[in-house]
Amino acid sequence: MALTFLPQNPLEGSAMASIVLIFSLYLTIAFLVVIIAQILGLRRSPPPFLSLKAKSLRKKRFSGVNFASGGSGLLDITGKTSLSLMKFGTPEKTPLAAPSVNQKNVVSLTEQIQQFATVKRNLTAIKGGRRVTKKSLFFISIGSNDLFEYYHSNSSIPKEEFLTSLLLAYENHLKNLIDLGARKFGIISVAPIGCCPSQRIHNTTSGCLEDLNDLAVAFHARLDALMFKMSSECKDIKYALGNAFEMTINVIQNPLPFNFTQVEAACCGAGKLNGESFCSPYANLCLNRDNYLFWDLYHPTQAASKLAAVTLFNGGPQFVTPINFAQLAMA
Ligand SMILES: *[C@@H]1O[C@H](CO)[C@@H](O)[C@H](O)[C@H]1NC(C)=O
Ligand SMILES: *[C@@H]1O[C@H](CO)[C@@H](O)[C@H](O)[C@H]1NC(C)=O
Ligand SMILES: *[C@@H]1O[C@H](CO)[C@@H](O)[C@H](O)[C@H]1NC(C)=O
Ligand SMILES: *[C@@H]1O[C@H](CO)[C@@H](O)[C@H](O)[C@H]1NC(C)=O
Q1: CA–CA gap between residue 257 and residue 255 (Å, rounded)
Q2: Which of 28, 87, 298, 319 lies 20 to 30 Å from 78 when distance is taken between CA atoms?
Q3: Transmembrane region positions (predicted)?
Q4: Is the bond preceding 322 in cis, omega lying within 30 degrees of 0?
Q5: Whose C-alpha lies nearest to ligand 1, atom 11?
């Protein structure tokens, strides 16, 4: 959920699954200023790959590319099956909901990495040498859509086995990025997705779906182990792993200090908890979105995303390990 506030405008309800790549070809200090400015919303975020022009790579101010794609997952199949239609609500209920119409347009993580390979080839041709990726930051936030689809498919694959295959896929993606020169990773695990309005409506008490949250917790533990293993195998890898579960559950359990008064219902949507359909021109819209954790049935508000970004950058070991994103940027 976190860094995805960077790529989109309007910022509300940005997609969760992404690679955001920041090149720090220039001074680290200048780079940090850019990031901090981005947190404050003062400067444009990296352009999406699909809108990138060949000549923008030559610009002096070129600072990164966003490959993120809503609905994508670690598994190539995630976001591309009819299951995701169910996940996003039936088409009858949400005739205007983009995700159910545009399933084919999901760009899998495999494809995102191929897109990065293209950019890297072009950049290397322009700038030459190894400098292109060694100091660049790779932000990756992915996994929730894989877990959603597994959970709602009532799959006969046991939970442990599914998680093993998911983490194997993650390892392969990271190895491909490392082969392409990536060394610094800012990684965000899966939030308590059982607490989304779209999931709470399946609980008679409107509580979170505990099984889905358990999957998110198990995913984080395995990702933590994977990153530790990979950084011991390859010494020049540096990473910061954001615990999106801890960060978010902390806010849900104690919302007021963070200025949130509504952490169950979505700001925009329809039905119970505004969690039965996507935000559309016909949906309900809350008046005080800054006091809501959820913008729509799945996605956080801009206020929640900013809080997450600040926590990732400056947070302590309860939320981000073994270093935070600010330390990663300087490492
Ligand atoms: C990369 O270079 C290829 C030609 O080698 C060109 O077709 C493509 O548009 C370029 N893409 C970007 C994003 O620079
Ligand atoms: C999974 O099980 C639930 C409850 O038993 C049911 O409502 C749902 O339709 C099932 N989903 C699939 C994809 O079979
Ligand atoms: C529903 O929410 C309650 C808390 O309100 C929780 O105790 C219960 O386990 C939840 N049910 C499911 C199926 O997750
Ligand atoms: C807190 O919420 C109020 C609306 O109730 C809003 O006006 C204010 O900007 C919020 N404060 C912060 C720090 O986000």
Answers
A1: 6
A2: 319
A3: 15-42
A4: yes
A5: 54
Q: Which residues contact 222 (CB under 8 A, 6 or more apart)?
A: 163, 167
The span from the CA of 69 to the CA of 110, in Å, is 12
- Helix, strand, or coil (residue 96): coil
pTM confidence score: 0.84
**Pocket residue to mutate for ligand 2, from 87, 154, 199, 211, most atoms within 8 A of Cβ:** 154
Q: How far is the CA of 113 from the centre of ligand 1 (A)?
A: 15
Q: Give the domain ranges of the chain.
A: 3-330
Distance CA(142)–CA(322), nearest Å, equals 19
Q: How far is the CA of 208 from the centre of ligand 3 (A)?
A: 6
Q: Is the CB of 76 under 6 A from ligand 4?
A: no
How, if at all, do strands 137-141 and 238-242 pair? unpaired
Whole-number Å distance, alpha carbon 199 to ligand 1 midpoint, is 41
Classify residue 47 by its DSSP letter. P
Identify the nearest ligand to the CA of 47 by its number: 1
Q: How far is the CA of 2 from the centre of ligand 4 (A)?
A: 20
**What stretch of H or E contains 16?**
none
In a mutational test of the pocket of ligand 2, which residue from 90, 149, 151, 152 has the highest number of ligand atoms less than 8 Å from its CB? 152
End-to-end CA distance of the chain: 24
